[in-house]
Write a structure and sequence with these properties.
The chain has about 325 residues and is mainly alpha-helical. It has 15 helices and 3 strands. Strands 1-2-3 form a 3-stranded antiparallel sheet, with no helix packed on it. The chain starts with a helix and ends with a helix.
Length: about 325
């Protein structure tokens, strides 16, 4: 017989998230993964098997221990810990209306604060580093041409890795003005213009793989040997493969991920003088404050601003200190 926790959790993931709220499969999967970890914690650390895990065993103290377990045993970041807490809080916020007898426990769990975290610098590549990375695939091979097109599309559009993985042939329009339709969080679609070089790569790629023929509109744009769309892990592996080949370039202090190219595109746009609202629309951010991290992180923009202020206020015709007799005389008498 299913426990009360199992019954409510199934209802939350299916009827509420997928049904009433209309969350995307990726969002539902993210919530599901949080509760998979919670169940694993009770099984492995508390010796409570899933079939005996009931709501009365899960309280604020247990959730706090679970969050600490994520950091200590699984070495999750503070950001990941807070993301797991947000998913659990969403479940217990919903639970209050489903079982009023659980309201006190629910509110105790909802009172657990998120852990404060320092915001790391935006990990991005310079324009030259990006160019060198994209030059790594061997374009004399079919796979190399595929990888070149994939990397160029990922960078040029500033797409999230899942958005790139979900692309179908129908999402590409190469007639001027060339653009690509990306479906992001909340199943919201945005149209991002393609630069001429990327459009040319995509045109050649579609022709080589015969995806420009009728009947292929729903075919994945980038796919594996089985004809299925590339996974997020597959795309990450491709990038890591070419980072290894460019180790001598010191591209970054950390591994280059798909999100690194997204950050790089945003930083390059900002440093080229593109207004933040345009960058927000390209990246698919809901709030402009999310896009402002690139303004805060742009060292080059800060340098230019300081140089502009310096040249206006401080002139460069000041005498050298060692050629100023008055100053030398004052120093000698000091």
């Amino acid at each position: 017989m299913a426990t009360d926790f199992a019954v409510f959790l199934r209802r939350f993931l299916t009827t509420y998230l997928a049904g009433l709220r209309g969350c995307s499969p990726n969002t539902v999967a993210s919530y599901r993964d949080t509760f998979k970890l919670l169940i694993a914690y009770f099984r492995d650390d508390q010796s409570i098997p899933p079939e005996k895990l009931t709501l009365d065993r899960i309280d604020a103290a247990a959730i706090t221990r679970f969050l600490n377990w994520l950091e200590a045993n699984r070495h999750n970041s503070v950001s990941t810990r807070n993301q797991r807490l947000a998913a659990i809080s969403s479940f217990y916020r919903w639970m209050q209306s489903q079982d009023p007898s659980q309201m006190v426990c629910c509110q105790d769990i909802l009172a657990i604060p998120a852990k404060r975290q320092t915001h790391p610098a935006v990990n991005h590549l310079t324009v030259e580093q990006t160019r060198r990375l994209l030059d790594q695939p061997d374009r004399s091979t079919r796979q190399g041409r595929r990888d070149t097109t994939l990397l160029a599309t990922l960078y040029d559009t500033g797409a999230r890795v899942q958005e790139l993985a979900d692309l179908a042939v129908r999402d590409i329009r190469l007639e001027p003005p060339a653009l690509i339709a990306l479906t992001g969080k909340g199943r919201k679609t945005r149209h991002v213009p393609l630069m001429d070089n990327t459009a040319a790569l995509l045109d050649a790629y579609l022709a080589e793989h015969r995806l420009n023929r009728p009947g292929h509109a729903d075919h994945p744009l980038f796919y594996n040997q089985h004809g299925n769309k590339l996974s997020r892990g597959g795309i990450t592996w491709i990038i890591a493969k070419y980072q290894t080949k460019t180790a001598d370039l010191t591209l970054t202090n950390a591994d280059i991920s798909p999100h690194t190219l997204r950050h790089s595109k945003a930083m390059h746009l900002y440093e080229a003088g593109i207004p933040l609202p345009y960058i927000r629309d390209i990246l698919g951010h809901v709030d402009l404050s999310t896009t402002e991290i690139y303004a805060r992180a742009s060292t080059e923009a800060k340098r230019r601003a300081l140089e502009a202020a310096y040249t206006e206020i401080v002139t460069n015709d000041l005498p050298e200190w060692n050629q100023d007799p008055g100053l030398l005389d004052w120093l000698a008498k000091l």
